[in-house]
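Lecture 7 notes. Example A: sequence first, then its structure tokens.
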Amino acid sequence: MANTKFPKGFLWGGATAANQIEGAYLEDGKGLTTVDLMPIGKNRFNVLLGNIDSLTPKENEFYPSHEAIDFYHRYKEDIALFAEMGFKSFRMSIAWTRIFPNGDDESPNEKGLQFYDDVFDELRKYNIEPVVTTCHFDVPVAVIEKYNGWKNRKMVDLYERYTRTIFNRYKDKVKYWMTFNEINMLLHLPFVGAGIVLEEGENKLQTLYQAAHHQLVASALAVKACHEIIPDAQIGCMLAAGSTYPYTSNPDDVWEAMTRDRESFFFIDVQSRGEYPGYAKRFFKDNNIHIEMEDWDEDILREHTVDYIGFSYYASRCISTDPDILGDQTEGNVFASVKNPYLTTSEWGWTIDPKGLRITANQLYDRYQKPLFIVENGLGAVDIPEADGSVNDDYRIDYLRAHFEEMAEAIEDGVEIIGYTSWGPIDLVSASTGEMKKRYGYIYVDKDNDGNGTLQRSKKKSFDWYKKVIASNGVDLA
């Protein structure tokens, strides 16, 4: 371990989201959330984008989140498996609608609060540090019906009350927090990111950036509350990251790549620097966007910046201004990308680029000079059990090994990285497709896309490999 590039106390672990693992979607008083309206199949992406005709589940659709992998009833079994792997941290989210079922209830739901007390106690029993996202793609449906989601400034007050409630409740159990998961997804998946249903003829950019402002102010108020209530805690933001490469050295391609990156950096610029950057102000001016603010908003943003930058990294992106090249795009991921001739792709069309993790980490650290936390990364693949039930996922081990090597190089470059939580340490519902077939985990869950299966947990080959990586603090990647 003397040769490790990873710092002492590095937070190895795994990452999940409440809506993709918990199930029990209306149990113990929980309210309906956006993801509970997202079926598997052809209609899912329409809902992700906000093209939705009903805010109640339909009888003829299958909604994967309603049961998910039933972590709600099986958390002790799952956490014991995480502990066996040697997890130092576990990134999870709190479902807003377990605490305030309608988002604006007069008092919190005690059964929901107690559930997370129990989960945190179980994690603490094994010395696993909870890393908690306060809002991970689960806007309460009731506030969409009542206030039009994050279009409405009222959401700032509701979110502040919700976060103050959970900070006060769990101040002795949680020391790492994040505000909004992949906050930049608001621009690409407005319904899941902000509970936004766009109306016909509505000025889309005006609506999305006004909602973004509301979330940025709400995030700053959560930072303020966290620092007041839990002075020894760290609270960060969370970005869906991945550098954009110009397809050629044509200056137009280079500029377009920078513009695409800025679209995402905009959110983190505000959350970590405390003000709107000049390029954003010009974008607003050029696109006739007027951000309505309260007199104190700029002070709130400036005075309450985040402690660290959390980010997901699955793939780099590539862009061209040549229409012929621009038409040849990868199949996967929300972010449009032309095919990079130097890289391969996963079964779902996501570009596989380990060095891109090093590039992205350096880019973020150069830009913000704040500690980084890699809170999502992994390979979604079809895992086929052998006759004896084992899963020989060498392809996942190869993917992760290559990314860990580049993460170590980033640390050697001088980038401060405090931890790594791979996405889906246990198989879970895919956010983008709703599938179970798209598996990320070290732990196999017996369930198929149609909801059939025993939900039995079993270890894949990668389980023991990751256990070895953690035990050696990244030295033994063989």
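Example B, a different protein, same format:
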Amino acid sequence: MKLSVGLKVANSLSLTPQLQQAIRLLQLSSLELEQEIQIQLDSNPLLEKIEEINTTESLSSLEPNEAADLTTELNADHLPNDLPVDTEWDDIYTHQSTALASPEYEEREDNRQVQLSLKEHILEQVNLLHFSIVDKLIAYCIVDSLDDKGFLDTGLDDILLAVTRLLQEMESNEEVEQDEIIVVLKHIQRLDPIGVGSRNLAECLNIQLETVDTKAQYLVEAKKLLQYYELLISNDLNKLLKQTGLSKEQLKGAVDLLKTLKPYPGLEFNQQESEYQVPDVVVSKKDQHWQVQLNPDVMPKLRVNSFYSNMIRRADQSDDNVYLRNQMLDAKNFIKSIDERHKTLLKVATCIVEHQRAFLEQGAEAMKPLVLRDVAEEVELHESTVSRVTTNKYMLTPRGLFELKYFFSSHVGTTAGGEASSTAIRAMIKKLVLNENPRKPLSDNAIAEMLKNEGIEVARRTVAKYRESLHIPSSSERKVLI
């Protein structure tokens, strides 16, 4: 084996740190970008944010003599020797920013309200009841077994076992029977919201019917109807009429009364606070032309700190000078990456708007089929870059706020040889369902035939898939009783 030294030339691709940073910033949402910028501002002294200053009065607007006097007062480091009687500190030294602007934040009372969960709401009421220690322990175990709908998710035997174990851990000689658990459960079911702790839907509705005015019309019929709630849920009208012995008018009145009740009392406590998205791109129509612009509220204005950059000496190789030089380079690269991100986002958003003008003017039914490859070829970017720039980015249009991914959809062939967007087909299905006869809802086959008459070739299973994605129940579940 012979060892030798030689040169070899080869081409290879490598991601520089600057390119890696640009790619990472490209896929960040506006909130994540704001956090990343704050991290850079905290770690790099040569990077600073340009703040928009709203001044009520600036030094330049003052007379020269007034400005000199004001500067002298601001720079004073001592109190005057002779102060007027009853003078306070704020009369001499007021809180004022260096730009003579109004205070950045106004002191306000915190009026935010914290919404209690279902279990916390029930426990607050339990603590007001005159329960013994054992009954409170039972109540806590029952409340702990409630599901998100407010129903009891555990059998009474399991609750009895849990209470017995807790009493043993407390070294208590109390014995609990299932009848005591039932009594406590009935108390909880009468708390707010009425029906919480029920074991099924029929029990929940029956408890709520007990609180309805006895003079209410069709109250007796509604209670009788709940005895056959399996048929009620399955919408089997003929069997309901036969089993209950009610007329169609009585059945309709009983159903209308049941619709006024709350089938799932716990759902109102599970409503999470709405998450408001800040748009990255704003689209508006002006002079019959659609204009696309970046949201200025999410566009950070950064620059290199001139004070520190002037301290850098070209020939100085000291540690401090090298540190400042490296930090200035990092700051410039970061600002450049942010600028490239905004340019790419604006370019892709403009391309999307050009393709989806029909959607902006007519609605979702006019959505055109569009894939990432089409946009990538038009803006001369890689498909993966377009995917990154459309992730977690939002566009504000006259028709609402949409994620950029929303405008991309697969296509389905038409009888005329063209293509239709899957988003447009979903919108058409939703419109057909909204306009159907509730007594005779459209089946998936019927919807497929109606779409075929519109020139869209789509199979029944495809209609079913789109319908389920819209959370639209089947035709049998949509059918009303009367």
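Note on Example B: The CA atoms of residues 185 and 432 lie 46 Å apart. Confidence is low (pLDDT under 50) at residues 55-59, 83-112.
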